[in-house]
Design brief:
CATH class of the largest domain: Alpha Beta
Distance between the termini: 22 Å
Order of helices and strands: EHEHEEEHEHEEEHEEEEHHEHEE
Strand order of the largest sheet: 5-6-8-7-11
Structural class: alpha/beta
Amino acid sequence: MIEIDGSTGEGGGQLVRLAVALAALTARPLRLANVRARRPRPGLRRQHLAAVRALAELCGARCEGLAPGSDAFSFEPRARPAGGELRVEVGSAGSVTLVLQALVPVLLGAAARSRVVVRGGTDVPRAPTWDYFERVLVPLLARMGVRIGARVLRRGYYPAGGGEVEAEIEPARPKPLAFARRGQEAPIAGEAQVARLPRSIAERMRAAALGALGRRPASIAVRALQAGEAAGIGGALTLWTASASGVLGASRVAERGVRAETLGAAAGAELAADLDAGAALDIHGADQVLVYLALSGAHSEFTVRKVSEHARTAIWLLERLLPVRFRVEPEGALWWIACAPA
């Protein structure tokens, strides 16, 4: 059984989700201790439990220690992931995009096409927004030959959740990833949306984002969601752009006590910084694409403005559980990350 210390590196939920996904893919039993040890509230939370239980269902895994707040558990896969229909109930505003982050790599290796419905929070703090998943990660994976059909059925916000999304995944082996060196920037798109809040909040987020982007061409839509389109009160802003030299995005979720202008300016400034540096991927996209590079079985590379602790932890885990090696080196104002078979 593989023993993983959950306090390694960033010591949070990403390590839990990725470790269990890799165990399901490789059919290797896993024991994870010190779960989320570096978080203010350590142990398994609802969204982590939802992801692990869904993965266990996919591969018939036997688990011990799965309970709210648990700081250790075991996961023993007993079959190849089956695919087919899967429904995941987070039971709170736990992020649906983080649950999908664990499921998608495994479903690429499933025996059949999969359709997954996840209920929880679509736009919550400290997680990719649904629009980031749909507009940044899905197109990025499409460049690697990964086909995902994704749509939001209903938005859900913190603390109640109640959102619902659907994803269809075709089994496939990801292709290697390589971008052209810095080229001409593409126009920026985006959307600011609110539910049961004044439309002016979305408009203020949009205006602040445009200001931070400067003279770059950008088209940011504003939407006030209707009653059937969202559960609860909330909102978010997501920006995205794609060209031959990169796929980039930035997002912010509306939070009580934080001005709309602050959120919009932060998202715009983040994307502008990535574009100024000439990065191929934004910091969060880099975190999420690493597992697909490792699964491609070929040489891949990209540049990023900053290597996060999440990315460094993912690299440590991938090198331990898969026959791959990463190189992470500074390159001017950027970092260059390459992945190749060991």
